[in-house]
Every structure is written in structure tokens, then in C-alpha cells.
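quick one, three chains, predict together pls
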Amino acid sequence: MQLPIYFPLGLGALLFGIGLWGALTRTNAVRILMFIELMLNGVNLNLMTFTRYYYPENATGPILTLFVMTVAAAEASIGLAIILQIVRNRGTVEVDKVDLLKG
Amino acid sequence: MPIDLSSVNPNLLIILPPGVLAVFALVVLVLDLYSQEKRWLAGLSLVGVLLSLVALWFASRPGAVPPGDYFGRMVTADHFTFYMVAVLLVAAGLVILFSMDWVPRRLPKVQVEYYELVLFATLGMMFMAASRDVTLIYLGLELSSQASYILAGLLRNDPRSNEAALKYFLNGALASAVLLFGLSILYGLTGTTYLPEMLVALGQAPLPLLVTAMVFVIAGFGFKVAAAPFHLWAPDAYEGAPTPVSGFFSMAPKAAAWAAVLRVFLEGLSIPQVMDKWSVLYAVLSASSMLIGNLTALWQTNVKRMMAYSSVSHAGYILVGVAAAARAPEVGAGAVLFYLLSYILTNAGIWAALVALENQGEGTEMADFRGLAQRNPALAWSLLLLFVSLIGIPPTVGFFGKFFLFRAGVQAGYVWLAVLMAINSAISVGYYYAVVRNMFFEKTEKPRLELGSSLQAVVALSVLAVLVVGLGSSPVIQYAEAALGLLGR
Amino acid sequence: MHPYLPLVIYAALALAVPVGISIAISLITPKKPEPSKYLTYESGHPTAPMLGRFPVKFYLVAMLFVIFDVEAASFYPWAVNLRELGVFGLVEALVFLLVLAVGYAYVWKKGGFQWR
């Protein structure tokens, strides 16, 4: 018996929702980054679910997933590099304490 | 001697412009490792951009590459591609040119990395504009965004630059994830990432899910083009980022994002059931961007920040064209394409002036513009003309850009939006005049402001283009409107 | 049924999840504050004060590993379709490798691999 498609899709939406919630409510930059990665995982789950259930002959879904993963890795390292520089200069990873620019 | 290109594989010809740029980017990267003297590498990057333009000219000649999709339907050859790639390359060339004096002074340790990142970002943007497959549009978007995050933080020991990079990065990454979620639903509904096929398959898709996906895509792109209310990162990123980088942000990445918006919405989501919906959503975004951008810009004391809000309001003007494109595709998209060119040409000169101020060790506050007419009359008058173009007063290119948008809005039945645009152009006089007043009616003791030859070239090119493209706008707008004639067929 | 009803339900659910999590956390969490509960607990051992920070070089190595590791995943689709893609695929893969190699040379030459 196959799992109804609503379960994996719901899980994907849930991951995305939790990620979005966290990214908008947290103030720790590293945590925001982790929540954004969670959102991307929700997207990947969506893509793979659709491929598996509706378009099993289709290669574009998995390829897009692969690209999303690759890009997410690059994104994480760039983000960490930026956060690291903030920590060196300001000694904090809290986004709400990084507030030199205003107006 | 005419060069015969008919025997060349069109597959190779169509990726020649990005290919040339990629090769130059890699070569510059390797040469950086083995060269002590870095300045000539800036010149080499510029040569790469120019050669890429030459390659584009060959590829875009009639008959060289028959219209269609190449490289497994990843790269599209049509007027839209040629026009946008040319615009992006011009923007990249101008940015490299006005950074040449600035970079050795302020970024002595990462000079070549600066040009590298500009080249790679441009490469990503070229693919964004040249593809009608969502996969490649996404990859191009990420390549350009991620290069931009690093560019924003290149002044590593300046906390403001760090902060700009952090805010730009977090917002950008969030936007990408939101956009991707929308795209993943679209893929689920249609089983393809190729926009024309998506369009065909969308007919049977359940409308509510389709609208959900559309809202996510609009929000994701809204962040990227800094349309209100998704614009909150833009002022901070512009103010904190190194000045030439802010100039780059205001010119190239946005133009590429607009190209992607037009592609996705006019080629992929243009079934009648949703067209009206995204048209109205974009009209609302347009109104809020114009109002918020212009009214907030009035209170700014930092010119970089003011230009950021100004760019939010200009995103609002462009959105008039996007909203109109749902009902009058050729006129709407043509107006958007023309406006992108006009905005880039105008902005180049203004940012060159800001870079010139920083080159002499001054800031970019409103007060730093005091008495500029005494210090360098030619620059002050040039800036006056460029601001006139941004406001949209004839005979400058900005006037024609706004006129085409206005016409598109009226033709599409968005008369209220077109009128709002005219009112907002009047509001924008307020903050541009603040700079002009400082330049012409304030006195200063500061010495003459010297521009290096490359900065002079950018300002001169910008002024010349604003007048020439303005007065000779009819072939450009014809090409821009024809660009859409092929798109989606 | 109105066509937008599922969407409304979906939006309501999406809203309910974060709100629910927040409420559930505050409900489930027992509130008996004791000073010992706020002490750091480490497998029953008495905890040592945190000795400095991790050197940044760990992060750098991890970052480089992640990037090159994930790039390698891009070879799988090519490897699976090796026969069908033929020479074209080989050239594509070589171009990809060349770009990776330039990146590798850049990191190497700039001292990214040095364990200072």
C-alpha cells in the first residue's frame, strides 16, 4: 500500500512552515540560517514527492532537487562566513543588536 | 571581410556571450594567483565584458541563431534574450569602469575578487534573462545573489558593510526559499520546469493551488526586486555596502530579476484564469512601492540610502508595466524593458559621482554634496541632468521610459495607477531637489573634486546616453516591444 | 464547495502550526524553577567551564569540505547516464571539473588549506 500523497506533501509544507516561522521570529543569525535550510528541505521534499507520485519518468524534479541542495550548501558557507565576520567585529550573532544602519 | 557564421553550430553561438565572460572570469581568477600587479586585471575584466558584447552582437545578427531553444531547451534565442543580455553587460561594464579607481584604495587586499564577483554575478544574471526553464533561472538567480552577498560584505573590517551583507543575505536566502516553494508547487501541478510546457499544462491545474504557488513566486521575486512591502533590506544593504557595489545592486541584479519576472509570468503563468489575479497583485505592489519609496526617500540624509528608496519607487514604476503586461503584453513588457535600460544608464552617472566623493575621502551624506557646483561644475550640471532624467522630465531618457510605462498602464486600463505614477514623479522632485540645492546653492571651502579618467568616462557616457537614447528612443522601444513578440510563441 | 475553501483551510492550518507550537510550548513546559535546573548538565560529569572557543579553522575546513562534497553529488546524474550522453556528456563533465579545479587552485593558493 502506498502512502497517500498528502502525507509527504503535508510534511513538506510543515517543514516549510516551521522554517518560515522560525526565520521570521528568531533573532540569532545562525538559527535563522538553519530555519531557512529547513524551508529548502521542505521544498526538496515537495519536489521529490511530486516526482515519485505523479511523474516517475521525469528527471527534472530530481535534478532541480540536486541543484537546490548544492546551492544550499554554498549559501550556508557564504552565510556562515558573513556571520563570522560580524562576530569578529561586533561580538554578537543577534540580528536585533546589529543595528548601525537606520533611518 | 564578412564572417560567415552559417556553418557554426547555433548551440555554440548562443552561449558564446556567457561563455566568453565565464572564460575571462576564470582566467582572471587564475592570473590573480600568479600576478603581483593587480590593476591590469581590472582592465582584463572590462575586456571580457566588451568581448562578450561583441560575441552577443555576432549571435544576435539575423540568421546567426534561429529563434528557439538550445542546449536541451535551457537557453533561449530571442530578442528578449539579446536585449536583456546586452543591457546587463552594459551595466557590468559601467560598474567595472567606475570601480577602477575606488577598488585599489578601499579594497587593496581583495581587488581582483571584487571584479571576479561582479563578473560571476553578471554571468548568473545573463542566464536568468536568457532561459525559459525555471531550473536555469533559479540557478542564475542564486549565482548572482550569492556573489552579491559577498560583494556587500567586501569591506571586511567595516561593521556597516558586515551588517549590510548579513541583512542582504538573510533576506535574500529567505526570498529564494519562498520563491522555490512556489516553483515546487508549479512543478507539481505541471510536471515540467520548462515554461512554455508549463503554460499548456496549467490549464487543467486546480486554481486554488495555482494561486497559492503564484503568491509565493510573487513574494519571492518581490524581495529580489525590492518592491514594497518586501523592500526592508534594500536601504540597509545599499547604505552599508561599498559604494560601487551599491551602484551595482541598483543597476544589474534588479534588471535581471525583472527579466525573470517577465519570463515566468508572461511565458509560464499567462493562462487567463490567473493573469488577472497576478496583474492586480502587481498593481497593488506597484502602488505601495511608489508611495512608500518616494515618501520615505524625502526624509533621508544619506544619499546612498536615498537612492535605495528611490530605487524602491522606481521598482513601483516598473511594476506598472508588469501589471499592464497581463492585458497588453507587447506594450507593457516593452515599456519595462526600455525602462530598465534607461534606469541603468541614468544611475551609472549618479553612482559614479558618489564613488568620486569617496575617492577623495569624503562621505555620501547630503552635506557632502554642498557646493559641488563650485568644486566641479561639469559634474554638478551632469548630475542635474541625470536627476532630471530620474524624475522624468523631457528630453531625457527617463521621460520616455515613464511615458511608455504610462501609455502601457492606460492601454491596459490601469488609469488610476498611471495617474498615481505621475503624482509620485512629482513627489520625487522633492528629494532630488534636496541634492541639487546642496550642490548649487550652498557654499563650501573644500577643494576641487577631481574625477579620474574612468569616472569621467562613466559620467560622460551616462549623460550622453541619457540624451541620445532619450531622443532616439523609437528604435529601442520598437526592438523592446518586438522582443516580446517572439517571447511565448 | 467554494474552490478557495481548501486554500482557506490550508492558510488556517499554516497559521495554526506556529501559534499552536508557541502555545503548546508554554502549556507543556512545567514551571518549577529550581536553581539546579539551570546548571549545565553533561552526562553526569561535573561540567567544566567552557574553555575558550573553537578555532575558526575548523569552520573553514568544514565549509570547504561541504562545498566540494556537494559538488561531487552533481556527478551522479552524469555517471548514471554516461553511455547515452557519450562524448557530449564527457566534455560537459570535463568543463565542470575544470571550473571546480580553478576553485580548488584558488583556495589552495590563497592558503585555505593551511593549518596555521
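Chain A touches chain C at residues 13-14, 17-18, 21, 25, 59, 62-63, 66, 69-70, 73-74, 76-77, 80-81, 84 (CB under 8 Å).
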